[in-house]
Amino acid sequence: MPTYRAPVEDTLFLLFDVLGYERHANLPGFADAGRETVEAILAEAARLCERTLLPTNQAGDLAGCALGPDGSVKTPEGFRDAYRAFAEGGWIGLSAAPEHGGQGLPHLLTSVVNEYASSANMAFAMYPGLTQGAIAALTLHGSEEQKRTYLPRMVSGEWTGTMNLTEPHCGTDLGLIRTRATPAGDGSYRITGSKIFISSGEHDLTENIVHLVLARVDGAPAGTKGISLFVAPKRLVNPDGSLGARNGISCGSIERKMGIHGNATCVMNYDGAAAWLVGEENRGLAAMFTMMNEARLGVGVQGLSQSEVAYQNAAAYAKERLQGRALTGAKEPSRPADPIIVHPDVRRTLLSIKAFNEAARALILWTALKGDVARVSEDEREKREGDDHMSLMTPVIKGVITDVGFDNAVMAQQMFGGHGYIAEWGMEQFVRDARIAMIYEGANGVQAMDLVGRKLPRDGGRAVMAFFKEVDGFLADNAEDGALKPFTGPLRRAREDLQKATMWFMANAMGKPDNAGAGATDYMHLFGLVGLGYMWGRIAKAAVAKRAEGNGVAERMDAKLVAGRFFMERTLPETATRLARIAAGADTVMALPADAF
Amino acid sequence: MPTYRAPVEDTLFLLFDVLGYERHANLPGFADAGRETVEAILAEAARLCERTLLPTNQAGDLAGCALGPDGSVKTPEGFRDAYRAFAEGGWIGLSAAPEHGGQGLPHLLTSVVNEYASSANMAFAMYPGLTQGAIAALTLHGSEEQKRTYLPRMVSGEWTGTMNLTEPHCGTDLGLIRTRATPAGDGSYRITGSKIFISSGEHDLTENIVHLVLARVDGAPAGTKGISLFVAPKRLVNPDGSLGARNGISCGSIERKMGIHGNATCVMNYDGAAAWLVGEENRGLAAMFTMMNEARLGVGVQGLSQSEVAYQNAAAYAKERLQGRALTGAKEPSRPADPIIVHPDVRRTLLSIKAFNEAARALILWTALKGDVARVSEDEREKREGDDHMSLMTPVIKGVITDVGFDNAVMAQQMFGGHGYIAEWGMEQFVRDARIAMIYEGANGVQAMDLVGRKLPRDGGRAVMAFFKEVDGFLADNAEDGALKPFTGPLRRAREDLQKATMWFMANAMGKPDNAGAGATDYMHLFGLVGLGYMWGRIAKAAVAKRAEGNGVAERMDAKLVAGRFFMERTLPETATRLARIAAGADTVMALPADAF
After folding, report:
1. Are strands A235-237 and A73-74 parallel, antiparallel or unpaired?
2. A87, B37, B98, B429: which has the highest count of C-beta atoms within 10 A?
3. CB distance A323–B173 less than 8 Å?
């Protein structure tokens, strides 16, 4: 059975040594969570994930969810107990507002906990994870009554939440939504229609489920401008807060799918279900979009989570599995063979994953920190910069970390040879689970178009220019630092490739948008490489400084510097290929008639 | 349910217009299979695969194989009928020797049929596929009596065959094999031990199964020099050819695994099983190696097969699925949305797969053709060149085409959005099935080491020099051809990268083998890119010539030229990154102590 140890030490190093968490102590939330508190929280989260969630992962994959004849869904054995522990530990509302029962701590810390929880059991972590998304939506857009009715019981974990967007004929293109909402005359609506791919849509973890639903009010304009957001509970809530009758909402079927078997993916049928408008009529998409950055960041975290747990197991296996001899002569001649970690190709594989994971974690935490600043700072400029950063980096994190996280899970599986293909060893589950993160919350091709078509040009390119400025500042500040040369040199070259690609779009894509579309995915990955390379620059700087402190951290810091050099030498040069593809433009891509495919 | 249409037209174009199949008409086998015969054979194979095998694929994945309490294995419903049709059509023995009931046709054609069969149902195609491997081993190394006893009934499909190599503690490193063979005094042996990961090890398709088993004769030298090859039938064969008692061979369990559910992956227990030595004692590994090139080529074919069937379904879906509008304005304004094939990122994805598949098929057929020449030519030089080519290209084809074939299946799945993750649509099965090809018959890291450590330096680099010479000849011959400039220019640059990488190994890896190990996987992929780029050069030349013929082939040839340009513009530039990684050497890769992973 796979093992997992939450990377608490690495998280703390990133927060306190690399990202300057403590500089934000003036902000609400941060003030209540100094270093000691953060350490205690992460240690507790680690314990819960390692001891309570992890043991349910493989069994949950094997058992899956079961739909009863009455439309009820049974989650895998052990999920109910694990959910109770997770909810009672206060983890769902860690960053929710205190007035709704939350702890009001930085969202950054929820990101960390969600990484650990997803590594331990991704399918399970989706139940509280979707609830957190629904909490965010209601907090931002719900009426006071809606907040009072739903939020305390979602924050406590007594009820869970879902998002109902997709329909059979519309995924990315939500303008095609057909689900109807008819005013009931009493301020409520009756919703009718069918939604698909609803994660956590039905289950036996809680008595009630709070569905957020996109639907079209009778007579609304066509397309995306006629979509409204509703809240529709599985069981109606009486004025005194007790549970009333079942609403007209039922789970029609659950999907048989590649992975995340422990999470029920439901077809949800709305049959005149009572629902209440969240925010303004016909402004439902805008309401969804305000929480989309956070949701997409959360999916990026899932990509990292599978890459991390797959790495840990592959590294352990490589140190145990005896097979063949080192190219330079037997390393353990008294044993029948050397452990496979002596082989350069095995180390190359492991370092490739390790070097990605550490920088990806940094990029996520950096961005989550900016998100918190944007949310709670009272300094308008800092707030705007945080928001710019969050908007720009969200599609990069979602697209790149889930793409590469999946590739990494595949590489980690490969370390096991034939055993990696066998369910018992658990590695193939990581691959299957990681795969969904590339698809949901906007398929990665959509992320790439969001980056190139919306985030880059927004506000005259303000966000991307700020990013370049920050990287350039780092390069200038450290130009003379010999210890950082292996980092600043490659970062400078990669940054130049990114600038060339950006200029190429400015020159060629304005008048011919297909040039943007044809280069979007490569641009997203190029951007991700530079972002990760910049993170390695900052990690390396912090590691060099910390190494000088002594305190027995030298070995750990040396390992970081080696992983960082590996990234600079082996991963970052990919920017050149990405740039070449972008500059190839759209002509060949668009040349064929559809029939020729 | 997924569809599949065997790419017969493309195969014929490659064989007759690109690879000069007809120039080999003087060779045995080829003489009996001129163009008309080949066309008829491929059309018949296509029909069988599309109509009989394809319908069993998804159902077989869902049902899987079942182990009975008596150790019997039930294959999925429909497999028995499909197997009967496949055997009765003579497909197993298409290239087997006529004296054993085979048709004696070029192995090249078996490669083609296996591509089609694997696209239609990979798990199924492994039953006859492994039989073909066992036939090849017995043909090369079996005694006359063994050939008489087993071959006719394997060629006819009455019995199937298996390969028993792996044990729990030994996969790549066969020197660790523990299974024992004790002489019985009558010329036979008694085998005791346990083998794992035995594909097709037990099933209900035939009455008998012929196991080829690696074991160590009592008192044999340790390591790889003490391993012998045996034949051990599931049911003993009486002198008159009738079936006798059950042998001491049983299936202990079958694996629950990521994919190829329709093929039983068995733990095979040998409990004093009667077995007969194949070839010489202690020469078992050498005997296995002589057939390994062919087996590995076959796995490369599987990689292509999943890439092809996944592509076909993704292309069809992209033409049907309505979602969003073209960046340049609605293409089908009368419909609620445009088909997603209008989007450049969708076309980029599809072209990336298409451009790979067509060149990969060419590389496989070219190599299979060389393999036939090596096998049957009486011209010593031609024979040697064929063998050189086959040896050099086998690890490249196995490693690169299965790696990229898997990536392509993932990309094709991505085209379906959420539907790609749902079993019903069939795309996720292609991904799961394709995954095994990167692992078995030597994990791809082992292929890379085989290429760099053995195939490159062999005979003073004769094979790789011949490859460079051929590519250079093509470049020189076509230097002035304007229509081929988009192909020759990029191919020349990629070839230079390959040469630099080869020189780097010569300069840096002889004295420090870790430099070879650390660069091996990137070198394998770099080699593959140049091989595929060269194939595109030859395909383009043939397409330009054929285009001039008219005959209504212009559109098809134009599509090839576009796909080829895409490969040159977007895929081939990856050689630069591969070279940079190789030249980074082993220092960073080997710097960390094992505990730091």
Report:
1. unpaired
2. B429
3. yes
Give the per-residue pLDDT at A16: 98
Low-confidence ranges of chain B (pLDDT < 70): none
Residue B597 included in any domain: no
Q: How far apart are CA A413 and CA B435, in angstroms?
A: 10
The answer to whether the Cβ–Cβ distance between A322 and B169 falls below 8 Å is yes
Query: Average pLDDT per run of 10 along chain A, which is 597 residues long?
Result: 97 98 94 95 98 98 97 98 98 97 97 98 98 96 98 98 94 93 98 97 98 97 96 97 98 98 98 98 90 91 98 98 94 95 98 98 98 96 97 98 98 98 98 98 97 95 97 97 98 98 94 96 98 98 93 92 98 98 98 97
Contacts of B202 (CB under 8 A, 6+ apart): B67, B71, B72, B73, B209, B234, B250, B251, B254, B264, B266, B268
d(CA A508, CA A502) in angstroms, rounded, equals 10
pLDDT at A552: 84
One domain, residues A87 and A215: no
Residue B219, domain member (yes or no): yes
B44 part of the active site:
no
Find chain A residues with C-beta within 8 A of B569's C-beta: 580-581, 584, 588
Last residue of a domain, one of A251, A270, A287: A287
Contact A339 B565 (CB under 8 A): no
User: Would you state the torsion angle of the CA atoms of residues B472, B473, B479, B485, taken in this order, to the nearest 10 degrees?
Assistant: -70
Asked if the Cβ–Cβ distance from A170 to B323 is below 8 Å, we say yes
pLDDT value for A19: 98
**Do B418 and A171 meet the contact criterion of CB atoms below 8 Å apart?**
yes
Judge: B444–A414 Cβ closer than 8 Å, yes or no: yes
Q: Does B352 lie in the same domain as B269? A: no
Report the residue count for chain B.
597
Count of structural domains within chain A: 3
C-alpha B57/C-alpha B264 separation (Å) is 14
Residue B239: which domain range?
Answer: 161-282
Query: Of the candidates B89, B88, B163, B180, which has an alpha carbon nearest to the alpha carbon of residue B127?
Result: B163
Question: d(Cα A283, Cα A70) in Å, to the nearest integer?
Answer: 35
Q: Are residues B362 and B450 in the same domain?
A: no
Q: What is the ipTM of this complex?
A: 0.97
**Domain holding B297: CATH number?**
1.20.140.10
Q: How far does A432 lie from chain B, in Å, by closest CA? A: 9
pLDDT score for A255: 98
Would you say A138 and A231 are in contact if contact means Cβ atoms under 8 Å apart? yes
C-alpha A142/C-alpha A359 separation (Å) is 36
Q: Are residues A144 and A16 in the same domain?
A: yes
Residue B150 is assigned to a structural domain of this protein: no
Amino acid making up residue A256: R
The residues facing A164 across adjacent strands are: A213
**Is residue A90 domain-shared with residue A189, that is, in the same domain?**
no
Task: Check whether residue B297 and residue B437 sit in a common domain.
Answer: yes
Out of B77, B167, B441, B470, the active site residue is B441
Q: Residue A281 and residue A226: Cα distance in Å, rounded?
A: 8
Q: Is residue B156 part of a domain?
A: no
The set of residues, in sequence order, having a beta carbon less than 8 Å from that of B418 and lying 6+ positions away, is: A166, A171, A196, A197, A439, A440
Joined together, the tokens standing for residue B543 give: 């397409």
Calculate how close chain B gets to A419, using CA atoms only, in Å. 9
Min CA distance, A445 vs chain B (Å)? 7
Query: Whole-angstrom Cα distance, residue B522 to residue A573?
Result: 13
Contacts of A126 in chain B (CB under 8 A): none
